[in-house]
Amino acid sequence: MTCIIQWSINGFYRRSIDINRVIYDLNPNIICFQETNFKNSHHPNLKNYTEYIKNRTTANRASGGVATFIKNNIDSKEIIIRTHLQAIVTLVELDKPIHICNIYIPDSSPFTTANIENILDQLSKPYIILGDFNSRNTSWGCNLTDLRGKTIEQIIENDQSLILLNNGDPTRYNSSNGLTLTSSSLAFSME
């Protein structure tokens, strides 16, 4: 069984003890962090993992960013996509090749359905899209639905091959920003 962890970490270095504990306890195959807060000169290393990193380049300080760590024994490579959003795509060879898109959209960064659909159009199926969209919707465990949540909901409704994997339980104690979507071909193979 493949273990994938998605974590909006809000500072990789300040959570290093928690990260090591999660790795020890769960031994995940893939870890996708959002809000890594790396400076461009920093490239973190997790023992036994290959890292794929996209830092936020428009800030005056270390903030935002995404990082995907994949166990060294899993064949993987970065797939370059065209987007202004903080997103990174990796192709991993599990039972079959799967694209994993790790995305972070800060509250201060507006996005449209076209921005997300642009990313979807660049992914081959099967794929998993996960991350922190800073969107709230009762469909994925929030106590309210905001405009950003409605945008994501519209994307799911427009693309019949897109499946929401969140089960309605909150993804965080104080908020529900984490979101995981997949192509239907992968969702049905997971049953």
From TrEMBL:
Coiled coil: none annotated. Pfam families: Exo_endo_phos_2 (PF14529). InterPro entries: Endo/exonu/phosph_ase_sf, Endo/exonuclease/phosphatase. GO terms for molecular function: catalytic activity. Gene3D superfamilies: Endonuclease/exonuclease/phosphatase. Residues 98-188 form the Endonuclease/exonuclease/phosphatase domain. This is Endonuclease/exonuclease/phosphatase domain-containing protein. It comes from Aphis glycines (Soybean aphid).
